[in-house]
Design brief:
Length: 311
């Protein structure tokens, strides 16, 4: 008991400098469908978020829900189509994502946080003109098998702008906003927007200190079949080769792209971690070793490593 207590006190002391550094700063945390699909994992994630909120970290939580949307589509007799890690959103698929993202999953996440004493507020990018988008035109896409094709993604939106005033109002009142990945159009349309993209745009709009993706993967892997090839720290230049080689396929590619845009657009540090692993979020935030992949811009990399860019 004495040994465990001593280790616990040492851990608290080690975390203190992080607690001081992060107080009153904004973290944008994106929860993937793999985290939301397991009630036990979701409860663990909610408990970790509650701890961050109790330390006066200003949290904005963004969620997707691809696996759940796909499951409901199949139950309704429509096979979902994914190309390049992104969903083709037909009329029927749009109805499904509205029901699943803004309805089922958003409510479940708010409820999970309430169980841990967090006052959370559910909304989508449509609310308060938070995220404005336009319909994506047909684009040329390189599929995971290396085939190039023209794809019409349907009711998928590309973000034009974000207006984070509604988030700032909630944060100032000590609420935790929970944002589902829908966006509004100028003519009253509703668009399905990749949740990684929503999280990245909100992080940049809020000048967040951290953007954290809690996923179903350990982070960026050089070899997708080998967890020992985890990339623990990288900047955009480090990731260029992996992008070109095709190692970053499926859902990991848009996450890395979002991290790169955020890290070069004013967000100090971005992270991709396995949200299913116990205490992964706390370990990433409060320890030097972390648990996943941290992606930063060139300037922040130099600061982190203590390198003079003039050398």
């Amino acid at each position: 008991m004495t040994i465990d207590t001593t280790r616990g006190i040492a851990g608290l002391k080690g975390a203190l400098r992080y607690v001081r550094a992060y107080r009153d700063h904004v973290f944008v945390v994106k929860l993937g469908g793999d985290v939301l699909s397991d009630p036990h994992v979701l409860d663990q994630a909610a408990a970790q978020l509650a701890l961050l909120a109790s330390l006066s970290i200003r949290l904005v939580v963004v969620h997707g829900g691809g696996p759940q949307a796909s499951a409901l589509s199949r139950r309704l007799g429509e096979e979902p189509e994914m190309i390049g890690g992104r969903r083709v959103t037909t009329d029927a698929a749009l109805s499904v994502v509205k029901m699943v993202y803004r309805g089922l999953l958003n409510t479940d996440l708010v409820s999970a946080l309430r169980r841990h004493g967090v006052q959370a507020v559910g909304l989508s990018g449509v609310d308060g003109d938070l995220v404005t988008a336009h319909r994506r035109p047909p684009v040329r896409v390189l599929d995971d098998d290396g085939t190039e094709r023209t794809v019409d993604y349907g009711h998928v939106g590309d973000v034009d702008r974000v207006d984070p005033r509604v988030l700032v109002a909630l944060l100032d009142a000590r609420f935790v906003p929970i944002v589902s990945s829908l966006a509004g159009g100028s003519e009253g349309e509703v668009f399905n927007v990749n949740a990684d993209t929503v999280a990245e745009n909100l992080a940049r709009g809020l000048r967040a200190q951290k953007l954290i993706f809690m996923t179903g993967a350990p982070g960026v892997l050089r070899d997708r079949e080998d967890p020992s090839t985890l990339v623990t720290f990288a900047d955009p230049d480090d990731l260029a080769g992996l992008m070109q080689s095709g190692a970053l396929a499926g859902g990991m590619k848009p996450k890395v792209e979002a991290c790169i845009r955020a890290a070069t657009g004013g967000v100090e540090r971005t992270h991709i971690i396995d949200g299913r692993a116990p205490d992964a979020l706390l370990l990433e935030v409060f320890t030097g070793a972390g648990t996943g992949t941290m992606i930063v811009g060139r300037k922040e990399k130099a600061t982190y490593l203590g390198v003079d860019l003039a050398d």
